[in-house]
Amino acid sequence: MPRSRVRDACEAAGRYLASLTYSVAQTVRCGKGEAKFRRRAGAIGRKPDELQESGLGGTPAEVAATIAEFAQIGADRVPACARLG
After folding, report:
1. Where are the alpha helices (DSSP H) in the chain?
2. End-to-end C-alpha distance for the chain, whole angstroms
3. For each of the chain's 85 residues, which pLDDT tens digit applies?
4. Could you give the C-alpha distances from 3 to 20, 48, 79, in angstroms and in order?
5. Which of 26, 47, 67, 71 has its CA 20 to 30 A from that of 77?
């Protein structure tokens, strides 16, 4: 939802915009190198290029750069859920 719609909804509800926390939920696949990332993307049936465009995918540096972009546009949190084992 665009921030302007969120702002308008807050104003209509009498809520302070500063009281909100903006979160970004994305599918994450990260690999130490490009080959490992591509294997991990394929393991969940996702195309690596698509994950890099619309998710959090790539090497650790690429994933960190995407998270930084989210922060620049106002995201406060990027929740993570890991599948272990």
Report:
1. 3-13, 34-43, 48-54, 60-72
2. 34
3. 567 888 899 889 998 888 888 889 888 999 999 999 999 999 999 999 999 998 899 999 999 999 999 999 889 999 877 665 4
4. 11, 28, 19
5. 47
Distances in Å between the Cα of 49 and the Cα atoms of 53, 58, 79 are 6, 9, 22
The four Cα atoms 52, 58, 64, 69 give a dihedral, to 10 degrees, of -10
Cα 51 to Cα 30: distance, rounded to the nearest angstrom: 10
The token pair that represents 76 in the structure block: 């406060």
Q: Which residues contact 23 (CB under 8 A, 6 or more apart)?
A: 75, 76, 77, 78, 79
Here the tokens at position 27 are 């599918």
